[in-house]
Amino acid sequence: MSFESDGDSAPRCSHLATILGDEAEYEALTNSYKIAVQWHARRSHNVIHPSKRRKITPPECETCGLALSRPYVCLHCLSRGCWNDGHIKQHLQDTGHDFCVDVKSGYVFCVVCDDFVYDSTFDRLYQRATIAEEEKATAFQASKRLREPFAPWLPNAQELTALEGAIASPCQGRRGILNLGQTCFMSVILQSFIANPLLRNYFLSDKHNHKLCKIKDCTSCEMDKLFAEVYSENSVPYGPIELLAKTWRTSSELSGYAQQDAHEFFITALNHIHATSRGSTHLQCICIIHSTFAGLLQSDVKCERCGKVAEKTDPMLDISLELKGEAGGEQQNLTLASCLRRYTHPEKLGPNEYSCEKCGKASHASKRLSIRKLPPVLSFQFKRFEHKSVDKSAARKIEAPVRFPASLNMAPFTTLVMHKQELLKDGGSAPVPPAIPDKLLGPEALYDYDLFAVVCHEGQIDNGHYTCYARSRDEWYRYDDDKVTHSTLSACLNSQAYMCFYVKRHLDYKPYVTPSYVVMREQEAVKEKEREREKEAARMREVEDELLAAI
């Protein structure tokens, strides 16, 4: 097979390059590609009833008549065929056509090369086509207009000048962390922070500079140093001594060389970074921690006597999931989805636990949790450590394995979807007024999350060790303190997870609203100019006073 390089320095199929060089053939091929991928994008937007997609007549293989859940489409004539039995390849060979596309992934197959081939043209087309379909299916409570069209970033003249003078620094973004004395609990959480794309982009874009910060015992400064060290040319394991010392000074419960809980350190680190980062406020906090991890939980308590529902929302930074059964024993065949279903399942409250405002007396009720606002990054903790009493020696570890997916759809556990399903269930076969229009739910893609880090605990509760799996550029690595080894997604999914971290596949945003960080940056620029004018005015007054004194 022969390849040449395209503008993005990636190997390019010469057969594809020949067709794309002809304007007419280029237009025909790209139009067929957009039709194929847009069909799949439109087909996957039903949030409430994803099972309805099965009722829609799927396309069939034109050779064997097999119903295709993942069809391959010829880019020359839009013929459909199956991949497993080789009918789409046979079609290409019989007709002399060269290319077909997998409508789900957007990957293009070249029959001459007998391989899937990459071209940045189709990569951009796939992104634009799928996003365009999502935009059509999305509406927001804040605006009657549809979703704001996506626009790729294009550098302005000032940014181009800065990029021309920039020197590329070779780095891997992977570095082991030294164990400073039973500090594996800290190492795994720091590795999950390093793999977190939102935290990485924040600290690598100089949003917090430790050389300019004047806050004492600033955890954000230590995070800035950590990212600078990991994304440097140095590959020697890094020892975060100052971060450990500051954690000891600010959190006495984590000080010393005893074994500590990774989840406890995670919450402590989030609080410290929140307190020392820009945008930290008590109301509507826009700091990096709340912008990344913060969501809203809704609690609905329904009185069984009068039917009144009391709603209450609470902020959340992570979700802790039970592994014990209702009888107190360990559950079998646990999955992340089953734990979430149990988390959002209605819970019965006795008359001594709830007093209804409408009835004015204590009554039986049911309480149900749901997620009102999904955060960009979801953190799950499995409650593996059981403390039956104050005595720590009586604690035990729940060893039950939990299966968790590489991709997760959170739509069934959100408040909007659960309320919509409840309305449809209560209405039965009779038509129910659409109290929650389907368009407000948005496309299913807005609920999709991808796994990027897993914290594991090996051993017993009093003699254990933490390790971490993390994704880096679509490859998986295992971090065991200072040792970094290449791993696989399969090994990660088969590990004994204690914490799982998922990031949203598509970050949502309010339409036609200037981002808060841009507003803050503009306000800071105005304040800085005011301070400069005040300094200049004070200097001029001093000069005038000196002249008057001399006269």
Name the structural class. alpha+beta
Largest sheet: 8 strands, mixed
Low-confidence stretches: 1-5, 429-434
Tell me, rounded to a whole number, the average pLDDT: 83
Number of helices: 17
Intertermini distance: 90 Å
Instruction: Give the number of DSSP strands.
Output: 27
DSSP strand (E) fraction?
15-25%
- Helix content range of the residues, please? 25-40%
Outline: globular
Over the alpha carbons, how many angstroms does the gyration radius reach? 28 Å
Task: Characterize the structure shown.
This protein is α+β, with helices and mostly antiparallel strands and 551 residues long. Helices cover 35% and strands 22% of the residues. The protein has 17 helices and 27 strands. Strand 15 (355-356) and strand 16 form a beta hairpin. Helix 9 packs across helix 11. The longest helix is centred in the last third of the chain and has 35 residues, at 516-550. The protein is globular. It starts with a strand and ends with a helix.
Topology:
Blueprint: E1 3-5, E2 11-13, H1 14-20, H2 23-43, H3 52-55, E3 72-74, E4 80-81, H4 87-95, E5 99-102, E6 108-110, E7 115-117, H5 120-136, E8 139-140, E9 143-146, H6 157-164, H7 184-195, H8 197-204, H9 219-230, H10 241-250, H11 262-276, H12 288-293, E10 295-303, E11 309-316, E12 319-321, E13 334-335, H13 336-343, E14 347-349, E15 355-356, E16 361-362, E17 365-373, E18 377-382, E19 385-386, E20 396-397, E21 402-403, E22 407-409, H14 415-427, H15 438-441, E23 448-459, E24 464-472, E25 475-480, E26 483-487, H16 489-493, E27 497-504, H17 516-550
Parallel strand pairs: 12-18, 13-21
Antiparallel strand pairs: 1-2, 3-4, 3-5, 5-6, 6-7, 8-9, 10-11, 10-17, 14-17, 15-16, 18-27, 19-20, 22-23, 23-24, 23-27, 24-25, 25-26
Helix pairs in contact: 2-5, 7-11, 9-11
